[in-house]
Amino acid sequence: MQVTSRKFKESAHEAMADEDLRAAMNRIRTAFTTARADAAAELPEFESLRDQAAEIKDHVLDNLDYYLEYFEQKVVAEGGHVHWCSTAEEARQAVLKICRDANARTVTKGKSMITEEIALNKFLASEGIEPIETDLGEYIIQLADEPPSHIIGPAVHKTREQVTDLFHEHHQQYGYQDREEDPEKLVGEARTVLRHKYVTADVGITGANFLIAETGSTVIVTNEGNGDLTQSLPKTHIVVASLEKIVPTLEDASTLMRVLARSATGQEMSVYTTFSTGPKRKDDIDGPENFHVVLLDGGRTEMLGTELQELLRCIRCGACMNHCPVYHAVGGHSYGWVYPGPIGAALNPQMVGIEEARHLPNASSFCGRCEEVCPVRIPLPKILRYWREKTFEQQIGPQPDRWAIEWWGFFAKRPWLYRQTTRLAARVLSMIAGDKGRIRSLPFAKGWTSVRDLPAPEGKTFMEQWKKHNREGR
């Protein structure tokens, strides 16, 4: 996937002016957030489960080599194969070799952020192998030739009218001549078109929500059942997953699943939870004849033992972006790489480089809602501050920005001077505003005053009020 994080500011401005995008994003503000709150309230032990989930992930990360090797032993014992890949290119080549060995011409795919990370679709197509997305959201954006804009709802940025246009354009070859607008009928169209592709696919590729060391199993959760068809109908099943998806036991996976769906969609459990352990056995009615797990590092082991390790707890629920006011305003594509929202702002600088993604850690108001709802308690604001500090230390970004921070630091380290300066600034701004009580234009604040007035300070400064509060013994 092409990286465009460097253009975040321009992309964000374009996104905020896109009326269709704003209409689509408004649904997230109520649908996902309300559902998550209701689901959490209905489970008395939800907060305790979050603590347990974080502990499980921390334990795994502290013993990652052990559990990964144990997982490989179990997969091999069940007749499967594990491919260790350090880079995206190694993972792509591993998948390609498996597909070549299977004489694959078409590949069905379940939803997978890791295959997005390694740009697998484009790569397979360049090698003469047709990838077919089977998740409805992924199918929609594949038709639109766009990347996902959300971790669990890849087409959440699309309005119903836009989906209607896409289906009308691409489904006429399958006999659908009328422009259909009814959502249920649109789903029926997609189901009919994809049904034949499931049956004729040579290879099925899925991601994995969890890898279970205890049994060598992989787990996927879906709401459409497409993952089951993708991994059970073709003769070869490939699981593409990153190292940190490993969990020690079935019980640990169960604990994580109890917070996953509730955090993601507000469900107690996803409609389909599927465990795969090796290829088809002698007495099995169906299933793949070949089972492969492609394990990607992709820079993750470099994060172990650093300030970024807590990011590897992430179980890709999307709750942080569902509750993020910045994501609501600019959508997922503005972030310029695979992972959008707060998790993308914290993870992408590591994955694509801080020089490329320097804007993303600044795309936050630090309201803390992301950390508040994260099922594994990732301290995202702390990590975003870490990246801001790194940007400043490495002198990345415009010199005026660094000067501004240096000047602020100068005053912040001298409380008496800070108080005098803020008091003077408040008085000056009040004088500029005059009787209107607002300022229409102000140097060094055009990012604000270009679209709204700046309210003039009223009354005393915070420090003055605090001093009075203490003096009066309140």
From TrEMBL:
InterPro entries: 4Fe4S_Fe-S-bd, 4Fe4S_Fe_S_CS, FTHF_cligase-like_sf, Helical_ferredxn, LUD_dom, LutB/LldF, LutB_C, NagB/RpiA_transferase-like
UniProt key word NAD: no
Keywords: 4Fe-4S, Electron transport, Iron, Iron-sulfur, Metal-binding, Repeat, Transport
Keyword Transport: yes
Domain 4Fe-4S ferredoxin-type: 304-335
PANTHER family: LACTATE UTILIZATION PROTEIN B
Protein name: Iron-sulfur cluster-binding protein
Organism placement in taxonomy: Bacteria, Pseudomonadati, Pseudomonadota, Alphaproteobacteria, Sneathiellales
